[in-house]
Amino acid sequence: MKKIKFFCFAVALLFLFASPSFAEHLERASSSCHLTTLDGEPTYDLQELKGKVVYMDFWASWCPPCIKSFPFLNQLEQDLKDEGLHVVGINLDEKVTDAQAFLAKNPVDFSIVADPSKQCAQVFELMAMPTSYLIDRNGNIRHVHQGFRSGESEELRALITQLLKE
Protein backbone atom coordinates (compact mmCIF):
# COMPACT_ATOMS: atom_id res chain seq x y z
CA MET A 1 0.00 0.00 0.00
CA LYS A 2 2.86 2.39 0.81
CA LYS A 3 4.40 1.72 -2.59
CA ILE A 4 1.15 2.64 -4.35
CA LYS A 5 0.81 5.88 -2.37
CA PHE A 6 4.43 6.78 -3.08
CA PHE A 7 3.94 6.04 -6.79
CA CYS A 8 0.82 8.26 -6.94
CA PHE A 9 2.66 11.03 -5.11
CA ALA A 10 5.64 10.77 -7.48
CA VAL A 11 3.39 10.91 -10.55
CA ALA A 12 1.57 13.96 -9.15
CA LEU A 13 4.91 15.71 -8.56
CA LEU A 14 6.04 14.85 -12.06
CA PHE A 15 2.95 16.47 -13.56
CA LEU A 16 3.24 19.46 -11.26
CA PHE A 17 6.79 20.19 -12.29
CA ALA A 18 6.39 19.16 -15.93
CA SER A 19 3.84 21.89 -16.75
CA PRO A 20 6.27 24.82 -16.87
CA SER A 21 8.60 22.86 -19.12
CA PHE A 22 5.80 22.54 -21.69
CA ALA A 23 5.61 26.33 -21.94
CA GLU A 24 9.37 26.45 -22.36
CA HIS A 25 9.08 23.90 -25.18
CA LEU A 26 6.88 26.21 -27.22
CA GLU A 27 9.42 29.02 -26.93
CA ARG A 28 12.20 26.64 -28.02
CA ALA A 29 10.00 25.17 -30.72
CA SER A 30 9.67 28.44 -32.58
CA SER A 31 13.42 28.52 -33.17
CA SER A 32 13.95 24.75 -33.49
CA CYS A 33 10.97 23.74 -35.65
CA HIS A 34 11.62 24.28 -39.32
CA LEU A 35 8.22 23.43 -40.70
CA THR A 36 7.55 23.26 -44.42
CA THR A 37 4.68 22.70 -46.77
CA LEU A 38 4.43 19.17 -48.13
CA ASP A 39 6.17 20.54 -51.23
CA GLY A 40 9.18 21.50 -49.10
CA GLU A 41 8.60 25.26 -49.05
CA PRO A 42 9.20 27.05 -45.74
CA THR A 43 6.02 27.89 -43.86
CA TYR A 44 5.12 30.00 -40.84
CA ASP A 45 6.98 30.17 -37.56
CA LEU A 46 5.06 28.85 -34.56
CA GLN A 47 5.40 32.26 -32.87
CA GLU A 48 3.10 33.65 -35.59
CA LEU A 49 0.26 31.66 -34.00
CA LYS A 50 0.43 33.58 -30.70
CA GLY A 51 -2.90 35.21 -30.00
CA LYS A 52 -4.79 32.17 -31.26
CA VAL A 53 -5.73 28.97 -29.54
CA VAL A 54 -3.83 26.26 -31.41
CA TYR A 55 -4.63 22.57 -31.68
CA MET A 56 -1.35 21.12 -32.96
CA ASP A 57 -1.59 17.50 -34.08
CA PHE A 58 1.40 15.35 -35.06
CA TRP A 59 0.33 12.63 -37.50
CA ALA A 60 1.53 10.16 -40.14
CA SER A 61 -0.16 8.28 -42.96
CA TRP A 62 0.60 4.87 -41.42
CA CYS A 63 -1.23 5.73 -38.18
CA PRO A 64 -4.79 4.25 -37.94
CA PRO A 65 -5.91 6.58 -35.10
CA CYS A 66 -4.78 9.54 -37.23
CA ILE A 67 -7.34 8.55 -39.87
CA LYS A 68 -10.04 8.52 -37.19
CA SER A 69 -8.99 11.95 -35.86
CA PHE A 70 -9.18 13.85 -39.15
CA PRO A 71 -12.99 14.25 -39.27
CA PHE A 72 -12.85 15.62 -35.71
CA LEU A 73 -10.06 18.05 -36.64
CA ASN A 74 -11.97 19.18 -39.74
CA GLN A 75 -15.05 19.80 -37.61
CA LEU A 76 -13.06 21.78 -35.03
CA GLU A 77 -11.59 24.00 -37.72
CA GLN A 78 -14.96 24.56 -39.34
CA ASP A 79 -16.84 25.26 -36.08
CA LEU A 80 -14.27 27.27 -34.12
CA LYS A 81 -11.89 29.07 -36.48
CA ASP A 82 -13.93 32.28 -36.30
CA GLU A 83 -13.56 32.21 -32.52
CA GLY A 84 -9.76 32.09 -32.77
CA LEU A 85 -8.90 28.39 -33.10
CA HIS A 86 -6.16 27.35 -35.50
CA VAL A 87 -5.80 23.63 -36.19
CA VAL A 88 -2.46 22.57 -37.64
CA GLY A 89 -1.49 19.03 -38.58
CA ILE A 90 2.25 18.32 -38.57
CA ASN A 91 3.13 15.39 -40.80
CA LEU A 92 6.00 13.06 -39.90
CA ASP A 93 6.01 10.69 -42.87
CA GLU A 94 9.40 9.71 -44.28
CA LYS A 95 8.07 10.05 -47.84
CA VAL A 96 6.00 13.10 -48.74
CA THR A 97 4.16 11.00 -51.34
CA ASP A 98 2.71 8.89 -48.49
CA ALA A 99 1.30 12.03 -46.85
CA GLN A 100 -0.07 13.31 -50.16
CA ALA A 101 -1.79 9.98 -50.91
CA PHE A 102 -3.26 9.97 -47.38
CA LEU A 103 -4.62 13.51 -47.84
CA ALA A 104 -6.09 12.61 -51.24
CA LYS A 105 -8.21 9.99 -49.44
CA ASN A 106 -8.79 12.10 -46.31
CA PRO A 107 -9.23 15.76 -47.34
CA VAL A 108 -8.66 18.40 -44.68
CA ASP A 109 -9.94 21.89 -43.94
CA PHE A 110 -7.08 22.74 -41.57
CA SER A 111 -3.42 23.65 -42.10
CA ILE A 112 -1.00 20.87 -42.97
CA VAL A 113 2.73 21.29 -42.57
CA ALA A 114 5.65 18.86 -42.51
CA ASP A 115 8.48 18.33 -40.07
CA PRO A 116 11.05 16.80 -42.46
CA SER A 117 13.95 16.94 -39.99
CA LYS A 118 11.77 15.60 -37.13
CA GLN A 119 13.32 18.34 -34.98
CA CYS A 120 9.90 19.68 -33.96
CA ALA A 121 8.82 16.20 -32.85
CA GLN A 122 12.00 15.97 -30.77
CA VAL A 123 11.46 19.37 -29.15
CA PHE A 124 7.93 18.37 -28.16
CA GLU A 125 9.23 14.98 -26.96
CA LEU A 126 6.71 13.13 -29.09
CA MET A 127 6.08 9.59 -27.82
CA ALA A 128 2.92 8.38 -29.60
CA MET A 129 0.97 8.92 -32.79
CA PRO A 130 -1.06 10.97 -33.03
CA THR A 131 -0.17 13.40 -30.28
CA SER A 132 -1.96 16.71 -29.95
CA TYR A 133 -0.98 19.84 -28.06
CA LEU A 134 -3.57 22.40 -27.05
CA ILE A 135 -1.85 25.78 -26.85
CA ASP A 136 -3.42 28.93 -25.35
CA ARG A 137 -3.32 32.45 -26.80
CA ASN A 138 -0.13 33.23 -24.85
CA GLY A 139 1.74 30.29 -26.38
CA ASN A 140 1.53 28.01 -23.34
CA ILE A 141 0.85 24.33 -23.79
CA ARG A 142 -2.21 23.65 -21.68
CA HIS A 143 -3.04 20.06 -22.60
CA VAL A 144 -1.28 17.12 -24.26
CA HIS A 145 -3.31 14.26 -25.68
CA GLN A 146 -1.82 11.02 -27.01
CA GLY A 147 -3.73 8.81 -29.41
CA PHE A 148 -7.27 9.39 -30.56
CA ARG A 149 -10.49 7.69 -29.56
CA SER A 150 -13.76 9.19 -30.78
CA GLY A 151 -15.24 8.94 -27.28
CA GLU A 152 -12.75 11.57 -26.11
CA SER A 153 -13.72 14.19 -28.66
CA GLU A 154 -16.31 15.90 -26.45
CA GLU A 155 -13.79 16.30 -23.62
CA LEU A 156 -11.22 17.76 -26.02
CA ARG A 157 -13.82 20.09 -27.51
CA ALA A 158 -14.75 21.31 -24.02
CA LEU A 159 -11.08 22.07 -23.24
CA ILE A 160 -10.75 24.00 -26.50
CA THR A 161 -13.96 25.93 -25.90
CA GLN A 162 -12.75 26.87 -22.41
CA LEU A 163 -9.47 28.21 -23.80
CA LEU A 164 -11.27 30.18 -26.47
CA LYS A 165 -13.27 31.96 -23.75
CA GLU A 166 -10.13 33.00 -21.82
TrEMBL record:
List residues of the Thioredoxin domain: 24-165
Q: Locate the transmembrane regions by residue number.
A: none
Keyword Signal assigned to the entry: answer is yes
N-terminal signal peptide? 1-23
SUPFAM superfamilies per the UniProt record, alphabetical: Thioredoxin-like (SSF52833)
* GO MF entry, a single one: oxidoreductase activity
Q: What is this protein called?
A: Thiol-disulfide isomerase or thioredoxin
Q: Which organism is it from?
A: Nitrosomonas ureae
